[in-house]
Specification:
three-stranded mixed sheet; alpha+beta; Aspartate Aminotransferase, domain 2
Length: 154
């Protein structure tokens, strides 16, 4: 999971991909919660597979995407009919177009998400200053000794 849906913690996926590849493994990244909230660069993360969901990008529920790196070859579990030229099924007709449009809109609005992040960071700093012994259930990178430290006193 690139970004946690409850805590907002962003995991070091690129580092995880390097470790996985060094051991001969593939890495799948669930980027459903991150897409539309932060820049998600499939190539830069170095993952082999990534999932997205249209409804998190303002698109229709029930539509998703599996991004597959060129070097990964998956066997289809179900083949499409003649209208799909015998290929892998794309699910809801036209859903992929609405997912793409939602992604385009979300990408254009990432600046607004940065402003919201600034507000969140300011609130968090003020809350931690007001209650120094508070325990956060998540933290952004660099705030804890390890990226997945939880709970974190920072």
């Amino acid at each position: 999971m690139l970004a946690n849906n409850e805590t907002g913690v962003v995991q070091p996926v690129a580092e995880a991909a390097r470790i996985a590849h060094a051991g001969g493994a593939l890495l799948h990244c669930d980027a459903v919660q991150a897409a539309g909230k932060m820049a998600v660069d499939f190539a830069a993360l170095g993952t082999d597979l990534m999932t997205l969901s249209a409804h998190k990008l303002g698109g229709p529920a029930g539509v998703g995407a599996l991004i597959v790196a060129d070097h990964v070859h998956l066997a289809a579990q179900q083949r499409g009919g003649g209208q799909e030229r015998g290929g892998a099924r794309d699910g809801e007709s036209g859903g992929h177009r609405r997912l793409r449009r939602g992604a385009e809109i979300a990408a254009a609005e990432l600046g607004a998400m940065a402003a919201i992040a600034d507000l969140r960071d300011n609130l968090e700093r003020r809350a931690m200053a007001a209650v120094p012994d508070a325990i956060r259930s998540g933290a952004r990178p660099g705030a804890c000794p390890t990226p997945v430290a939880w709970p974190c006193r920072a």
